Amino acid sequence: MLAISTRGLGKSFGNHRVVDGLDLNVEAGSVFGFLGPNGAGKSTTMRMMLGLIKPDTGSVRIMNRCLATDRSAALRTVGSVIEAPSLYDHLSGHANLDLTRRLLALPAKEIERVLDLVDLGHSASRRVREYSLGMKQRLAIARALLGSPTVLVLDEPLNGLDPQGIFDIRNLIRRLAHQEGRAVVVSSHLLTEVEQTADHVGLLLKGRLVLQGSTETLLRQQAAYRVLVDDPSAGKRVAANLKLIASEMDDHSLILRADTNSTEDLKAGELARALVVAGLEIHEFAPARMSLEHLYQDAVRQQERIPA
Ligand SMILES: Nc1ncnc2c1ncn2[C@@H]1O[C@H](COP(=O)(O)OP(=O)(O)OP(=O)(O)O)[C@@H](O)[C@H]1O
């Protein structure tokens, strides 16, 4: 089931087409990583998903309700944290949540439930000004969870966090999707983090969706090999002759792969033969995993070939 879908979603500011014909599909009970560099249009898209700004073209459906024609029913199923969490620093975590709980006319026990979910029960009576950024982020997510929305939209929730903060938020996001059955949309430009968190990804470049699908499937689509040879520079030349993309790792091994836009598959035998024929000594040769970073670089290269 689709928790959020957009069809032909578009938005311009003046002459600048910031979001251009997006068909996004966010599955229920899964994490959707919304990727793209700064200025790609992620926040604008999320704002349209939440009804904060009006699209020029296209539509948004949330839990099968049309945002334009059934706005309050559609938005009732969504919680969000957009940009920096706006919390009252001089109040406790509990008091911050209580303000929103009262506005939503929810029972008092709802606060304990969301505090438990984000693992902040022990710090609930402390003032928010004493919280780390990661704790503030978790508190903001707790607030978004008041009322048990089935969909959560989080804009850059990992920004500015230290490794422990990232780890906590990543686990929380996965738990909310996989154990609690919510759809969580997470925007980010941190490819490695999203690769470890998101079940599905969508990559936005200059307002256009250039890649969308299951993270696992996208990464498995194309063969890649990790090769350690005695002369990495010569290895790179062999790769270039075979029209392969070569990335040199810190240990001087090479990750060799076909461009994801190429229809040619990379054959291990052909590659090994070419390296040997070039007089290289192969110390290691093993299948390698593609990364979102690779897919991202390919998508950027592809887009540069297409005139805007
Ligand atoms: N209200 C606005 N008026 C004019 N231009 C805007 C407005 N909001 C966003 N933009 C422009 O639209 C483009 C996309 O911005 P957006 O914030 O959606 O990108 P983003 O992918 O979320 O990037 P970032 O991570 O930097 O926020 C940018 O060029 C931005 O300057």
Provide the descriptors you would attach to this structure in a database record.
11 helices, binds adenosine-5'-triphosphate, 2 domains, 6-stranded mixed beta sheet, globular, 15 strands, alpha/beta, Alpha-Beta Plaits
Set out the fold topology.
Elements: E1 2-13, E2 16-22, E3 25-27, E4 31-35, H1 42-49, E5 57-62, E6 65-66, H2 71-76, E7 78-81, H3 93-103, H4 109-117, H5 133-145, E8 151-155, H6 163-178, E9 183-188, H7 191-197, E10 200-205, E11 208-214, H8 215-220, E12 224-229, H9 232-241, E13 245-248, E14 254-257, H10 268-277, E15 282-288, H11 292-305
Parallel strand pairs: 4-9, 4-10, 7-8, 8-9
Antiparallel strand pairs: 1-2, 1-3, 1-5, 5-6, 10-11, 12-14, 12-15, 13-14
Helix pairs in contact: 4-5, 5-6
Bound molecules: adenosine-5'-triphosphate (ATP).
Provide an overview of this structure.
- With 308 residues, the protein is an alpha/beta fold.
- The protein has two domains: 2-214, P-loop containing nucleotide triphosphate hydrolases (Rossmann fold, 3-Layer(aba) Sandwich); 222-289, Alpha-Beta Plaits, CATH 3.30.70.
- 36% of the residues lie in helices and 27% in strands.
- The protein contains eleven helices and 15 strands.
- It has helices at 42-49, 71-76, 93-103, 109-117, 133-145, 163-178, 191-197, 215-220, 232-241, 268-277, 292-305, and strands spanning 2-13, 16-22, 25-27, 31-35, 57-62, 65-66, 78-81, 151-155, 183-188, 200-205, 208-214, 224-229, 245-248, 254-257, 282-288.
- The strands form three sheets. The chain has a six-stranded mixed β-sheet with strand order 7-8-9-4-10-11, with helices on both faces. Strands 1, 2, 3, 5 and 6 form a five-stranded antiparallel β-sheet that branches.
- Helix 6 (163-178) links the parallel strand 8 and strand 9.
- Helix 4 crosses helix 5 and helix 5 runs parallel beside helix 6.
- The longest helix has 16 residues, at 163-178.
- The radius of gyration is 23 Å and the shape is globular.
- 38% of the residues are buried.
- The mean pLDDT is 91.
- The site of adenosine-5'-triphosphate has 10 residues, from helix 1.
- Pfam families: ABC_tran.
- This is ABC-2 type transport system ATP-binding protein.
- InterPro entries: AAA+_ATPase, ABC_transporter-like_ATP-bd, ABC_transporter-like_CS, P-loop_NTPase.
- Belongs to the ABC transporter superfamily.
- Keywords: ATP-binding, Nucleotide-binding, Transport.
